[in-house]
Amino acid sequence: MTWFGVSFFLKEMSLINGHLWWPVFAAGIGVLLILRGVMIYENTKYWSNDKGAFIGGAFFILLSLLSFVNFGYLANFWPVIIVFLGISIYRRKK
Hints:
Radius of gyration: 16 Å
Strand content: under 5%
Number of domains: 1
Distance between the termini: 32 Å
Oligomer: single chain
């Protein structure tokens, strides 16, 4: 919640353009998830506990970086990629 406030404050102070707010917010979430994964790994020294945080953080950072590149119609399909990623994770757990 704090990152939401900080990123919204940066937008309101015109330090971030309005259309760039979402990518900056997503990248910040990704960085926070990776930092959480590092902290979990440092405490447990066990990779499986923090694997999800690293993967989720990398995904959010990749998603925010893709918003700076124009892929045309392909840019509209990223929600479908998220759905298939979720289905594959769900099927692996069973």
